[in-house]
Amino acid sequence: MTRIVSIFVSSIALALLSLSTHALELGDSPLVLVGDNGLEAVVAPTADEKQALVKLTGLDHPMNGVVMLADVEQRDNDGRAYRAEVDGKQRSLVVYAQSYWSPTDYTAYVPGQQEPHAIKADEEGSAGISLDGLVAEYEQQMNEGIQARLARFDRAKAVQRQQSALEAIDESASKVCDSPVSTSVNWEALNNDQLNNLNIAGYCGQVAAEMEYLCLSNDGFKERVKEVSEVECGFADSLNLSRDDQTVVFQTEEDASNQREAINGFLQTL
User: Fold this and answer.
1) pTM for this model (two decimals)
2) CA distance 31 to 38
3) Domain membership of residue 61 as a residue range
4) What pLDDT digit, counting tens, does each position of 120-131 carry?
């Protein structure tokens, strides 16, 4: 009985593997795209061109060497983006868009890095791709749960990334204004959707950034801004700024308009 069950389970596993391989029937036009500093992208569309296996290598990133199953998002002028779930969000890994000024139409994006990477087709490399090998690598990594781990949202990493960006804004403003300023955020009050979809550093760094602008454009402002050393930032239902001793309390709102103008006007009254 045990042997029969074992054979039955093995048969199901083989059937599922066969279905998986069939579902990933690849087309005959895979691409190898190369960029600077050893970056390489393999893009192998499925036969129906609705999905593609995408593999980026040469990265300082957990995604390095992982074969991702990406959806193909059609865009204007025959453009397309190859998008996969990484860190809790659908993200573009490779984008094709016709360009009249760039030497290449392809761009690679590394999740968590702001700078895109120009990549161009490598005809010799493209001709040497083993599609069966790529599918096998994808399925092995799937069985090991690698893609699933990459897909999960890492809250701690998101906070660290946003905090580092905020510190860079504060450091620049402090240097220009000749006085220290530090921005704090109540990270616990932010939900995962906000952390994953909003540029928190962009919102909460606006006060320090505007301080820097005013210090650059008006030497007299440097003396006034010395009375402020802290910025407390949070999200609320509406935009609001107030002062508590040496602290600017900044409540921002996702869709508030003219935020920079409101901050500028408030700082002018310090």
Assistant:
1) 0.70
2) 16
3) 26-151
4) 999 999 999 999
